[in-house]
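[job 0412] stage=fold_complex status=start
inputs:
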Amino acid sequence: MTDTKILAVICRKGGVGKTMLATHLAVAAQNLGLITAVLDLDPQANSAMWGDNRGSDAQPAVVAAQANRLPVFIKQAQEQDADLLILDTPPHADTTATAAAQAADLLLIPTRPSGPDLDALPASIHLARTSGKPFFVVLNAAPVQGSEVNDATHGLEAEGIEVSPVVLHHRKAFSSHWQQGMTAEEADPDGKAAAEIRALMLWLAERLGLMQPERQSHLKIA
Ligand SMILES: Nc1ncnc2c1ncn2[C@@H]1O[C@H](COP(=O)(O)OP(=O)(O)O)[C@@H](O)[C@H]1O
Ligand SMILES: [Mg+2]
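[job 0412] stage=fold_complex status=done
writing structure:
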């Protein structure tokens, strides 16, 4: 039985990239050789539908779930030696995101680096702090040019909030392969979006202790 690591993608605001990150990170983790599954806790079931687009036997497994069944799925993931479980969560203020945070080893909070996303961030930071779990912000859909990334990073760090060193920029490739159930990394492995998501997943894997030598026995040789 594996000590499955759990990453929860949370944000009280919709449209910030939770589902994009959950699905893209899951494929990036699989490509690192980590056995990965996505639990979609959002009743909108966007991750689950993306999984449907991939086909029933495709990896990573994507399962629509409800928060009160989290312990069942976590146990299954452990029994099946999953390395990583990624929780996609809804934005609304019910107990789902809180339950996901409580189950998680690490919380990832995506936000655009400016505008309404940033204004709405305190509710998500509050949820993360209340959970007592380590958390960090990922700047997503960032403009390629301009001072937004630096300004947001400095502002957040001044409040003691950790910001991921990897920034995801606004790139069409993160959304344009959705209908085929593909990620940017799968559709265009040499593209900039692919490089960004790989770098973020590598950083996360190290944070989660997934790159330790005993874990690497799971790594498949390509
Ligand atoms: N970095 C990005 N570049 C371009 N489009 C993005 C990026 N991140 C997210 N999107 C797109 O923005 C929309 C909202 O993202 P989504 O992951 O569904 O947000 P959430 O799950 O937080 O509601 C989707 O169409 C998604 O493909
Ligand atoms: Mg979503």
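[job 0412] summary: Residues 5-210 form a domain with the Rossmann fold fold (CATH 3.40.50.300).
[job 0412] exit 0
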